[in-house]
Amino acid sequence: MEVTVTVNGAAHTGEVEPRLLLVDHIRRVVGLTGTHIGCDTTSCGACTVLVDGTPVKSCTVLAVQADGRSVTTVEGLKTNGQLHPIQEAFSAEHGLQCGFCTPGMMLVGAALIEQNPAPSDEEVRWAISGNLCRCTGYMNIVKAIQAAAGAAAPGEDQ
Amino acid sequence: MTTVEEPLTPPEIGGIGHSLKRHEDARLIEGQGSFLDDLELPGMLHMAILRSPLAHARILGIDTSEADAVDGVVAVVTGELMAQHGLAWMPTLSGDTQAVLATDKVRFQGQEVAAVVATDPYVAEDALELIVVDYEELPAITTPQQALADGAPVIRDEKEGQEGNLVYEWEAGDAAATDAAFATADRVVSLVTHYPRSHPAPLETCGAVADVNSVTGQATIWLTSQAPHAHRTLFAMVAGLPEQNIRIISPDLGGGFGNKVPIYPGYVVATAASLLLGTPVKWIESRSENLISTGFARDYHMEGELALTDEGRILALRVKMLSDQGAFFADAQPTQFKAGLFHVVTGSYDFGAAHVVCSGAYTNKAPGGVAYRCSFRITEASFLIERLVQTAAYELGIDPAEIRFRNFIQPDQFPYETPTGFVYDSGDYPTALTMALESVGYEALRTEQAEARAEGRLIGIGIAHFTEAVGAGPSRQYDIAGLKMIDSAELRVHPTGKAILKLGVKTQGQGHETTFAQIVASELGIPATDIKVEHGDTDNTPYGLGTYGSRSTPVGGAATAMVARKLAGKAREIAAHLLEAASDDIEMESGKLFVRGTPERSVTIQDVALAAYTNLPEGMEYGLEGVHYYDPPNLTYPYGSYVVVVEVDAETGVWKVRRMVALDDCGVRINPMIVEGQIHGGLTEGFAMSSMQWITFDEEGNCIGSNFMDYLIPTAWETPRFELLSTSVPSPHHPIGAKGVGESATVGSPAAFVNAVVDALAHLGVRNIDMPMLPDRVWAAIQSAPS
Fold first, then answer.
1. A2-74 has which CATH code?
2. pLDDT for res A153
3. pTM
4. Are residues B647 and B764 in the same domain?
5. Is residue B527 domain-shared with residue B673, that is, in the same domain?
6. pLDDT digits (tens, 9 = 90+) for B176-190
7. Is B481 exposed, middle or buried (0-12, 13-18, 19+ CB in 10 A)?
8. How far is A24 from chain B (nearest CA, A)?
9. DSSP category for residue B254
10. Which residues of B are catalytic?
11. Residue B338: alpha-carbon gap to chain centroid
12. E strand or H helix that includes residue B588
């Protein structure tokens, strides 16, 4: 089947097998390997991307379902050479160790602070509860997302 | 002594003690890490493995004809083909053998039976389903007790001389002295508990990309490996390839936690396939494959007895342990220690006698027994002694904190030799526990607990004070498969004063690229941001045994400090030449080398680096680089005091953590931010094992817990918030006084959580709930409580 998937602003049109998973499409066809695979059962969230701005686990979506959609991966967070506040905050707050869950965590965090400019500890934890991390114990991930919300909040530095 | 000291270097140097942001973050936050599955090579084929659905069965035949015929399938590999090349079996890291692809029998569910190599991973998976294996099912043995019972079927019947299912028997301590102490005891307190089977489950599974050039014989193998150098040597031994032609590259690892220490059959099959086909072959296991076939952890059945006086003084400890090893003895243990360092089970307490008897049994379960965020079975040991001491407190009517104070090894007793032969290096246990108790408000909590009980509410306060033995290890005692457990660092300072540090150890997220640069920054005054740290590529780094057992900082970190000191010696001589002074009169401070007494006569380390390639004293060898192999004189002994407060719902058995205070002493902290991150992660894994994370099997040997819907890992929602405290008693024998910390919290915290829940029910007479403390287990304990 022919699909057109816009990934980080660039349209990718091509023939795909109907059973091809979106995560494999992103990694192997589009060639962006920042989106990771951790479990195959929609449990771990390492493969999380944004589809039209909403966090989606790309191991449980077919590439054909993303036809005509706009996908944002970790490689698309940086704009005009500027890191997204969530990227800055994950490093500043030591929100990552091995870095394998980090792309998914950051994308969920970015989507959350888009909706909620000042999320509480509980709100952040609920938002990332579909994403597993084996290294950090989540504390610094929560801090990083809250710090990014503070940095991105309108009025804060205007 | 117990305060955390200020860093000695300024922030722009960023040496030890600075919470420097991590160098490795830059690539990871932009999706530019290079994890194994990210690697694509021209012409690369994809491999998938067929696994046994049965726990124990004889293989009568394998028909691969239909799979062979699938468009896109390049080869189907069976044990028979591997046997033709002498590769159907391989040695394990603990001196046993393991089937690479099964030829005679399958011995656990998930065992590797055949592999398909195809042009596309989806095609390889499709073809697996077309392979027909004719099995004759045999009775499955799923517990070590069954395995050692009379008449049990012999699982390892292929091993010459193997009569039953016993893997090993091992003991430590002094049986006679222990018996004598028990004979004089006022009281004997005992505990029987099972530390359940768990799995490290790093978020990235295991895999390999093998690229064997049939013309040159060069084998480049990218592996998810915590120990690339050891793996290279073992590959040379297993495959008979010349070691100079084997290059192991361990790329960015998505966690390891012990899971990436063993050599797995998939690595060997992918390499053999690449060798036979002359093309690169990639194998990435699925999550289910990871959970059902690769290195499990724990599965220790433990019985402990403490001999005590009426006043609560411990006189002796007796321990009997039976371990479930699965079908192959594939632990990665030091050769001399069959049950790892389990004999550290005497813990933080001063008493005269102990006897520890260990045995292991083969079962029809996955092999492993890896040290999951743990230094060789210390997690099990720490759990047992801390649960036993807690039990003794209730039986003797002594407060659980007080009984620990009465038995602690005192600060002036270090170095302290334990009854099982460890020599603890340093510590101040009473201060640590006192600080943790004050922080949590212990006295007030006991009052609140009493009031709550009067109202029918259940509150528990759990204490664990652990001592770890990490940083294996001194070559006189420690080797794996004959390879001494030394480690190394190579440091090259370039003419512009920038440096590259190459390590024998391998990060899996611990931040070596930052912390090891900080060690060099402290020693030489080169800014940490000017130092690139390389690791994981055996062609480009000096030899080492790798990263596990919290050995990176104790061994590799020591090697780093020592190589920097070698270079500092030469730097002083060069500075003396530049300053026309005697080298004995040159002092170094934060990158400045100056003549003692006249600090204005100075050069920088960068000046010295340039001179090392341009302007040397007569007769001196050019360059500013060196290598150091460090053989530690002793292990290091980090410790900590953890206090957990829980509330238990008597109606449902659900328990919630209200507070978790964790004091850790890991000696000198290189990067406090990273140390705290390690502790957060470790505490979470301890919480996981105590609350939900385990792997079980049904009577037929089917693995329950083969995916993340059955194998529960805590999310941010369940995970408690942690309050961290620290003291810092340096290791006296380590060059920078550091002890290692990556595993402390996983070792120490499970007992604290269990002690807390049991404490909530102690007045009912409850003395034990095995992990994981699922609500139904807690509820059952309440229902069956004596009072």
1. 3.10.20.30
2. 65
3. 0.97
4. yes
5. no
6. 999 999 999 999 999
7. middle
8. 10
9. S
10. 226, 373-374, 743
11. 16
12. strand B586-589
